[in-house]
Amino acid sequence: MRLVQFETTDGQRRVGVADDGRLRVVDGAERVYDLAREAAASGGTLSALVEKRIGDAVEDYGAALVENRVLAPIDHPDPAHCMITGTGLSHLGSAQARNEMHAKLSSGEELTDSMKMFQAGLEGGKPAAGEIGAEPEWFWKGDGTIVVPTGQPLDSPGFALDGGEEAELAGIYVIGDDGTPFRIGFALANEFADHILERQNYLLLAHSKLRPCALGPELRLGALPPSVTGTIRVTRGNQELWRAEMLSG
């Protein structure tokens, strides 16, 4: 199931289920956050709650996208209570780049600290039930005010040396009334980063994270497939300037 937050043509917030080019509107829902907390409080799943609440109203998904009425797929009534965080060294590209920055031995006989951390994540990043997994490198990026909905521009601060995209997946969590965190799903994401600054010194990783970041239009409920692939493109007008493959999952 894929949930979308959007505004109607008269400015009313709604939640819809993406279904073959249309959004099936969820009755009495303005925020996914509220639905998730309601499901957590009842002990049920978000998908089951949404299924019960889907009404007869539908919205043209394509029109909502073109008219920039699609919102971020999750938000909080008070953005200060939404945390945007990330983990470094969670994919091979970042590990290789970091490894090159501070290689200890030219012979390659000894792993760098960064590669050791990446290797620990490969071996213990998905622990079995009851076991303790490897702790990832973690950084805080900002609060909910920095999240940009799909189709909206990412503003680059004047002090940035570079504005580079980092297409990835975002895990979406909601904290229940009793303090228990619930992962409700995933969304496509685009982090905005200053790679020129990061390449100067690997200790500047957190400094390189430009605050604005984007979420895709949809929140996918439940688990992800083992592999998620896609194509990243940079275009200007009708001209494609660059493309690369996204590998995640």
The DSSP helix count reads 6
By secondary-structure content and strand pairing, the structural class works out as alpha+beta
**What is the share of helical residues?**
10-25%
Question: What assembly state would you assign to the polypeptide chains in this entry?
Answer: single chain
Please tell me how large the radius of gyration is.
Answer: 20 Å
Provide the residue-averaged pLDDT.
87
Tally the beta strands.
Answer: 13
Major sheet attributes:
9 strands, mixed
Strand content: 35-45%
- Contiguous low-pLDDT stretches (5 residues minimum) are none
Sequence of secondary-structure elements: EEEHHEHEHHEEEEHEEEE
- State the end-to-end CA separation: 17 Å
Based on Cα principal axes, name the global outline: globular
What report would you give on this structure?
21% of the residues lie in helices and 38% in strands. With 249 residues, the chain is α+β, with helices and mostly antiparallel strands. The strands form three sheets. Strands 1, 2, 3, 4, 7, 8, 9, 10 and 11 form a nine-stranded mixed sheet that branches. A two-stranded antiparallel sheet has the order 5-6. Strands 12-13 form a two-stranded antiparallel sheet. β12 and β13 (239-248) form a beta hairpin. α4 (92-101) packs antiparallel against α5 (113-124). The relative contact order is 0.15.
Short précis:
The chain is 21% helix and 38% strand. It is of the alpha+beta class and 249 residues long. Strands 1, 2, 3, 4, 7, 8, 9, 10 and 11 form a 9-stranded mixed β-sheet that branches. A two-stranded antiparallel sheet has the order 5-6. A two-stranded antiparallel sheet has the order 12-13.
